[in-house]
Amino acid sequence: MEKLFESWKRRKLTLFGKACIIRTLAISKLVYTSSILCLPDSNFIKRIQRLIFNFIWEKTEIIKRNTLIGDIAKGGLSIVDIDCKLKSLKAAWIPRLLNSKGILFDILSNQCKKLNIDIHFLLKCSTTKTETLDSIKLPLFYKEIFCCFNECKRELHFEKRSPDDILQQPIWNNCNLVYKGNSVFFENWIKSGILYIKDLFDDEGNFRRLEHYANIINKSNWLCEYKILFQITKSIRRLYSFSNVNFINIQSVMSFNFPLGYYNLTGKSSNFFYKNLIEKKFCKPSSQLILRKEFEIYDEKSWKNIYECKIKDIKDKHVAEFSYKLLNNILCNNVYVSKWKKDISN
Asked: What is the pTM of this model?
């Protein structure tokens, strides 16, 4: 990749030309191997990111990286974010597993059944750390698949959910139910069939007493575990009444909430997951915040029209690059043209 960038640095490419080289020639070298191997370490990803942005700017980076990865219509350059790209390739395995129903699906299902859960339960969890899935004897590659898929989702806080929706959420590996900063995962409770928040409440909506769990498997720490569950559900018990818990039926779902909306997983590719990861990571251009106050342009549709008309739809990319730099205030103009003529007005 370094040799590739060095060879293209000799040519006078625009920012859009460099972005095209990164997408078509550089990142394409990593796509296949990344989709079938485990995620590389963070140092490798940082090194690739450094190579990409050194190729774009050559010297000092002028615009935020999290801005450049956005679509041109939002003020970015559509530069590929390697971290999001690799995670999207992993997340794209989930629709394949659910649609194939082949040997691989059966193997994963059998591993889950040992804990009295299924793949659909794992998909409802929100863990993004592979170590939280150590109790499920899966290879690291498949743990990464579920964690990367969870990173693509949009997890709503309980304050923004309805009581019925909360009752259908899993207790375990749930980012909204944390104890000392970490989600909980009690294997003995899971094997005993206590999986969802509704399992913690009786028909009248009250938190079940300790005596209800007398038949739980392995009671070595069950008293402490009960207190932890009581503690982490305190906030939702204050907010809502769960008197309709008896009417909640847990069903397997194929549709999930993503940053771009509520979508069914059927037929979704890595490109879909990549767009959702970018939506979570993207930062608006800092110059846009200044210009919107100066020219009183507060409507997002107006900004989209500006970026499309002045940059995206321009065929001459040198002109488009000039407009892009002008909108991002990185062109030498007015008082910035000369360091020695201080009388130039703004």
From this structure: 0.90
